Amino acid sequence: MRKRLLVIIMALAVLTLYFGLRFDLFEYFTQQYEITPAQELEKDEELEIPSREALLSISFVTKNSEYIDLEVEVARTERERAIGLMFRESLDEDSGMIFVYEEDSKEKFWMKNCKIHLDMIFIDKTGVIIDIVKSAPPCYDEPCKFYGPSVPYRFVIETNGGWADGKGINIGDKIKI
Fold it and tell me: Which of 28, 55, 156, 160 is the most exposed, fewest CB within 10 Å of its CB?
């Protein structure tokens, strides 16, 4: 009886540690950063780009333990994700946007209304890069091509086209916040 009770207590302790120490990036974003949802755009209203205070600094950690920094705008809401980087004429060299999903997603991305080539870096819930679309071109005529992995992801980072190759970012690397 004592042995069975001890096994049950140990099992509960292990489960408590596992679930208590589980690192969920979505919870980190939602609890640590106050991001104002994108305002509804009126017809012909110009898209507002978030202020510098709304940027988040993240690091990519390569397999060689090299840290590569990037400043990103955060797209958390459905509206912010739908607008993304549309209509942007340019991006600063080490900047981009991170799309944050509450649940794993297989939603596809397209380049409609984008004016610049973009890298799309797909990341799982543990922060590991699972796919990279390199230098996706703008789409000027429909139907537009859709991009995305066949496996679920939790985050997508869009940067200037060629940025991932130029910085040596690869599938299997991680992000750190």
Answer: 28
Q: How far is the C-alpha of 170 from the C-alpha of 22, rounded, in Å? A: 25
d(CA 85, CA 38) in angstroms, rounded, equals 12
CA distance 160 to 56: 17
Cα(89)–Cα(115) distance, integer angstroms? 6
In this predicted model, what pLDDT tens digit does every residue of 26-77 receive, in sequence order?
444 444 433 333 333 344 444 344 444 468 999 999 999 999 999 999 988 8
By C-alpha distance, which of 33, 97, 104, 44 is closest to 70?
97
Alpha-carbon distance of 14 to 73, in angstroms, equals 37
Encoded tokens for 38: 């994108």
**Domains of the chain (ranges plus CATH)?**
2-37+48-176 (2.60.120.1140)
